[in-house]
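Closing statement on the cytidine-5'-monophosphate sub-project.
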Amino acid sequence: MTNHKKILVALDTPNISAVQDTIEQVGEFVGGFKLGLEFFNYNGVDGLKTAMTGKDNFLFLDLKFHDIPNTVAGAIRGCMSGVVPNMITIHTSGGFEMMKRAKEESALVASKLGVKAPLIVGVTVLTALDNNDMQDIGYSNDTKEQAIKLAKLAKRAGLDGIVCSAFEIESIKKACGDDFILVVPGIRPQGVDSGDQKRIMTPEQAIEKGADYLVIGRPITQAQNQREMAKQISLSLDK
Ligand code: C5P
């Protein structure tokens, strides 16, 4: 895959026409788009259809499912009932059975529909949590140990990969192997405001470390000229 195809633009908005506009502006310079809880809770499966039908961009549906296996399986069926996403997130802390069931269900639905099964990737430890928060919620591991432990469990349960920060790429690839897909947010091109992200890397650095997908939101969506920004990032990755 050429590097610019690894860029997934995070569209954190409830607004369907803003999503359509960004897809139109930047679609040719990136691999695809991430739609998440905000967009989905306002617009649902129909909104996804409206925004993505007819587009050949990769769709990352980031709804971070976390419930008992049966309920997560139902949620997986539901979110595949309009356009079928290329990648879906679940929480690894939902446990082995939940992850296994999510992966199996997504493969089953895809085979009934005759489409490619979505990649199922796990969220390990949310980057908003620090070591104090870990103690508060009863985990004795620190965030990094816990992320590696959950990544290994996700791999055993059959997940395709996980979401992690660029700073964890090397240790998780080492623990889970090169084929385990790492989806990396917290990306900031040189000179762009870091916003509320604390541990950031440039797109080039994250690719160099071995990221399989880069999730980039505000640097593109809040740019004066979205198209130009996406083009610049894309060129910086493919030179
Ligand atoms: O605007 P920005 O580039 O910071 O957007 C990053 C995207 O990645 C957001 O949609 C955010 O919710 C998501 N994300 C993150 N950190 C994680 C997991 C997801 O920033 N650990």
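Residues 10, 12, 36, 126-127, 163, 185-186, 195, 197, 215-219 surround cytidine-5'-monophosphate (CB under 6 Å). With this model delivered, the sub-project is considered complete and its resources will be redirected to Aim 3.
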